[in-house]
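ok so i was messing around last nite and threw this chain in just to see what happens. nothing serious, just curious
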Amino acid sequence: MVKDLQAVPGVILGVLLGVVLLLPPPAPAARNTADATLTIRLISTAGHITYRDRAPQGPSKGDVISGPSVLRNAVKQFGRPKGAVVGHDYEVITLATATTGTLSAKVYLPGGTLRVRGRWTSKTNADTVQVVGGTGRYANARGTSYVRDLSGKRSLNVYHLRIP
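result:
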């Protein structure tokens, strides 16, 4: 009788282990499915623009226009006043025709970067292209970048972002 009682704790432990192993794993913590939204308004001032003209001479397929811009707040944001320098970007436009092409840009802002890509045209003074990613605070950002020409080498850049 004493021998049987000593075996009982081992049997109970075995049964409990079997039950625990058969239980489903705990569910992962609920993920916040709501993306954060953010609108950034900047005044871009173009720096030195490089134009690589490929044959035939003049604007044509394969030509590349590139250069940096200084970015200033169009409104108070990033904890800095309107007009403060808050970043820079670098754009590359590859022409498909004399007046159209593709644009890609990397935008350097406080807390991270944005990647922008899309169709470009010289016939309008406003273009909308896609935000296709980012780093840091803007990791995996998606949205649009609206660019409207202002006077001189300046433009208004408005980024409407969704950040997971």
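not much to say yet. The CA atoms of residues 3 and 27 lie 42 Å apart.
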